[in-house]
Structures are given as C-alpha cells and as structure tokens.
Amino acid sequence: MPELPEVETIARTLSPQILDRRILSLELLRKKTLQAGHAWLPRLQGARISRVHRRAKLLLLDLDLPPDAPLPRLCLLFHLKMTGSFFVHPAGAAALKHTRIIFDLDGSPGSRLFFDDIRTFGYCRIAPPESLPDWPFWKSLGPEPLLCPIPTLARRFLGRAAAIKAVLLNQTVIAGIGNIYADEALFQAGIHPATKASRLPFPALESLARSLQDILIRAIAQCGSSIRDYRDALGNAGAFQNTFAVYGRKGQACIRCGVPLLQTRIAGRTTVYCPRCQPETSA
Ligand SMILES: [Zn+2]
User: Pick from 95, 96, 123, 137: most CB atoms within 10 A?
Assistant: First the structure.
C-alpha cells in the first residue's frame, strides 16, 4: 500500500501535469469507486485544479469552481489503498482494463487524467473543503509526522499500552505510516517492535520520532519505495526499496551487525527486525 512518501511523490509528480487545468468532463467507469459526493458531480465541469497535495495517505485535488457555481471550492480526495495510481494520458486515450475514473482536462493539447486501481479498494470522494471535518475518517487522522516537532511526536507515543509498532501504524496517533516505514524507523532507533510503548522512556521515543522523520525524508527524496505495483504519476518506480535495512529482508544479514533478521507478526502485520540491534527491552 502506498504510504506517506509514495503518496507525497505522486502529488509532486502529478501537480506539474495538471495544475491550473480545468476539468471538462468526468467518466466514472466504476460507480463504487466514487464513495461520496455524487451530488457534486455536475459541479466538476469547468472546475480548475488549484492545488495537488497530500494529507496522511490521501491525495487531494483542490478545485476552484466557476464564478456562477453555488460554492467557491470543492475537493477531490483519493485513497489509493493497495493499488490506486494516477497517470496523465493524451486526449483521446482509451480507458485501460483497470481504469476507474477519467478526468478530461483542457489545454492544447488536452489530456486525460486516469485513476487506475487493479484491486478496487481505492476510492474517491467529492466534498466542499469546509465539510471535511465532518468526515469521521478525516477527523480521526493524527498529525502529519513531518510537521510535528520531535518532542510533540514522541509525546504522541508516550504511555500507550500497545506494541510500539502498532502505535506507529495507528493512523489516529500519527498519519501516513504503514508497514515499511514503521519497520525501518524501529530498526534505525534500535527498538524492538513488540515493546509496549508505555515501557519506552521518553528519550527512546524521541529517538524513534527522529528516525521516523529521517526515514520519511530520505524516502521522499528517493521518490518512495516500489514493491509490486507502486509507480509515481510519471510511471516511474521509487528507489528507497534499494536501501531497506529490514523490510522484506527476513533471514538476511543485519546491515549493522550481520546477525540474521527475524520475522514476527505484530498488529496482524509481518514485522522484520534484528534481534541484536533491537533487543527486547527490560526498561
Ligand atoms: Zn543487527
């Protein structure tokens, strides 16, 4: 599933291709992909894409509506889930097998923005931006890890009864982290993933917060991690998977100490760690 660095990369590669373009029409090829906001569909015609950005693992297109519209702005929100992806094709390009929504955009030549999704878990919502706080999922999201000062981030983890890995994955604690970056940050901070957060002293949590930010920044710089399907909005793979220390490396030698990495399951997710660099804490 695309995590924070992948969705950020998609936003950054998509933006120059569609910013300031107007939506001429929309083709909803799979009705269920539009999860909410059907009533706003007629309002998208003529809307100008004024910003392409990310919140948590959601990709957002802000739209300015024509002056005669009953409201000034709408927002298109996409959750890519397992296999959602975006690609800009030339005008006239035909839908692909897994294309779920097509936006025809103005310009000369015009172009078509495809939202493709093989597994169909991804979704789109249309909503006025001021209504977003009424969406329970949006309201539940924790802060952005890269916008939090280290002590603030560390305090989010403090005193929680769950395993620290489960805390990192909990989108209400912090937003945007999935299996890859949780495992990598825990390795970098030298923390055993099963350690209850409440047993970790504050400096260890600060070290984890620092590792997490460092990993995310480095992953974004390398355009995310491509395992299986992920591609950015230009069709390019990310490169961060080439520098994974633990994710997907079960049984291989730890890059730091050479001991074979172990695999376990935490919060229902496959978890890889180094038994020597990430000892079970007695703190
Ligand atoms: Zn090690």
Answer: 123
